Amino acid sequence: MERFNGDFGKAGHSHFAIDIERMGEVWKTIGGKWRLKLIIALAQGDKRFNELKEAVHGISPRALSKELRELEKHGLIKRMKSRSKPGAVAYQLTDIAFRLKDAIRALDHWNAWYKQQFQREKLVY
Questions:
Q1: Cα-Cα-Cα-Cα dihedral of 59, 63, 69, 74, to 10°?
Q2: Could you say which of 10, 35, 91, 114 has the lowest number of CB atoms within 10 Å?
Q3: What is the 3-state secondary structure (H, E, C) of 33-100?
Q4: Looking at residue 74, what is its pLDDT?
Q5: Gap between the Cα atoms of 123 and 115, Å rounded
C-alpha cells in the first residue's frame, strides 16, 4: 500500500501517514455531488423522500433514489417503514454515519478557512 508521508513542502507542518487506497474507499462511500449533503440533511433528523428532495436543492428524484440506495448499501442510512401510514417510508442515519460528524465538522472548518485564505490570495495576485 502506498502511504503519503509529507509536509506539503512547508516547514512546521507535522508529518502524517494516510493510506491512499483507503482514502479512495472513503470517497467511494461518501463522495460525490450529493452524499455529504444527504448525510448532513439526515443529521438534522429523520426525513421522508420529499423532505430530502427539498432539503438538498437541485437533486433530481432519480439521483435521490440512487444515492439513498447507495448510502443504505454502505450502512450509512436506514429505510424505515411508517407504522401509521402504510407505504410511507422515512430515512435515518445509522450510528456508523453519526461517527462522521467530527470529520464533516473538520471539513466545514477547513472550507471556511480556505474561502478566507483564497480571497486573500486572490487579492494579492
A1: -70
A2: 10
A3: CCHHHHHHHHHCCCECHHHHHHHCCCCCHHHHHHHHHHHHHCCCEEEEECCCCCCCEEEEECHHHHCC
A4: 95
A5: 12
The pTM for the full model equals 0.77
CATH classification of 31-96, choosing from 3.40.50.300, 1.10.10.10, 3.30.470.30, 3.40.50.1820? 1.10.10.10
92-98: long-range contacts, CB 8 A cutoff, minimum separation 24: 92/42, 92/46, 93/39, 93/42, 93/43, 97/39, 97/42, 97/43, 97/71, 98/43
Query: What is the residue whose three cell numbers read 433530481?
Result: 60
